[in-house]
């Protein structure tokens, strides 16, 4: 039984405690948070768990086998490094780290200590994303033309990061998982409206080989909540609406065929408009799956889609996007 120590019991920490406490092969042994009110809530919910406000006490506890970190991104590197040096594998909330150098150091340290790193890109374990991956791998959509994602709502404003570092890690991780190639460049634009020096609206465009383009729109100032991704392929097109209770994914037999006969001025465009179908999506709690995968990864090894290397790729794209934002939409090559 893998004994977990959870650092952070704020917004996401309670979800980690709940899932690691019931996941097959794991049990929460200790929870750490500096907020007394948060610890008081946790004690009422989990009387059998030990609690502390001292991070070092949790990391150095001999009963704790692995550590999950659900704290602000600026603290991830320091906490994960301490845990790895103490001989404990780590599960880190997204984004992995705040800089590329921090991520690379943690990956190197984990390899040296023969420990595991997993980054909490939860959406990769949802039934919807796994179904989309299956459709792409089975060539149902054909060659991919574009990936277009919208993740907007009113808030929640973060005090330490902009909207890109808060919301875009989800979509960048999904994009990286689904598109079987590496982006060549990114252009990012956005703005902030409350004199905080942090963007609350941003638009990211990633350029891939073979004319694949990916666009991500993130926004804390939307009057409505939207979670929609469109993927266009040569054979089929797909719409994923994460807020749709029933038909969360819709696949459309729609497309365009363009041919020329006697030169570029004799352009023939054929539009295909066929049926729509909604594939069955497995109803599971993604965080439960990712918790169980972490246990298996630590104890048995193997490969996972959200290891430290995958987390590093997302951080590289976030850092490049931030540089482009700072320079008013400059194209940054990856």
CATH class placement of the largest domain:
Alpha Beta
Number of strands: 15
Biggest sheet, strands in spatial order? 14-13-12-11-7-10-9-8-15
What characteristic shape results from the CA principal axes?
globular
| Beta-strand fraction estimate | 25-35%
Describe the structure.
By secondary structure, the chain is of the alpha/beta class. It has two domains: 2-115, 3-Layer(aba) Sandwich (Rossmann fold), CATH 3.40.50; 124-283 and 316-333, Dihydrodipicolinate Reductase, domain 2 (2-Layer Sandwich). Helices cover 34% and strands 31% of the residues. The chain has helices at 13-22, 36-45, 55-59, 73-85, 100-113, 127-137, 163-178, 286-300, 308-326, and strands at residues 2-7, 26-32, 50-52, 66-69, 89-93, 117-120, 144-154, 185-191, 201-207, 213-219, 221-233, 237-241, 249-260, 267-277, 332-333. The strands form two sheets. The protein has a nine-stranded mixed beta sheet with strand order 14-13-12-11-7-10-9-8-15. A hairpin with a 7-residue loop joins strand 12 and strand 13 (249-260). Helix 1 (13-22) crosses helix 8 (286-300) and helix 7 (163-178) crosses helix 9 (308-326).
What labels would you give this structure?
334 residues; alpha/beta; 9 helices; Rossmann fold
Summarize the structure.
The chain has 334 residues and is α/β, with parallel strands linked by helices.
